[in-house]
Design goal:
Blueprint (H helix, E strand, L loop, with lengths): L1 E6 L5 H14 L2 E9 L22 E10 L2 E12 L3 H9 L4 E4 L13 E4 L1
Parallel strand pairs: 1-2, 1-5, 2-4, 5-6
Antiparallel strand pairs: 3-4
Length: 121
């Protein structure tokens, strides 16, 4: 099973722990999708969002990392992304062929749009 966790900081600690446990239980892979939104980045001088060009190539992927859990090694991919909308989470889940997406409650609205199983934790 390929488990993707939408991680947006402290609020998603429970979702991350749940996703790690699911990947461990199933002997599957884990994708940690670390989220930043464009709106988090403001031009300090005028409070406006920076130019769109500043975000070219904002998706960064670190593959084939191993997390050790209960004596098992979980193959993990870390994805660092700046998002325009929450829908980008599901787009990446589809591209990555995730079997389960674990979301913190902030992203609960994605349940009705999901392309696979979704757990909100």
């Amino acid at each position: 099973m390929k488990v993707m966790v939408a991680y947006n900081g402290f609020e998603a600690q429970a979702a991350l722990a749940y996703g790690v446990n699911k990947a461990n239980e199933t002997g599957g892979e884990l994708i940690v999708f670390d989220i930043l939104r464009r709106t988090y980045f403001l031009d300090i001088d005028n409070g406006a969002p920076p130019e769109k060009d500043a975000f070219q190539g904002t998706l960064r992927v670190k593959k084939d990392t191993l997390i050790h859990r209960s004596g098992r090694k979980i193959l993990t991919t870390f994805v660092f992304a700046v998002l325009d909308t929450c829908d980008d989470i599901l787009s990446y889940a589809g591209q990555a062929q995730a079997d389960l997406v674990v979301l913190p409650p902030e992203y609960e609205e994605l349940l009705e749009k999901a392309c696979c199983l979704v757990d909100v934790v």
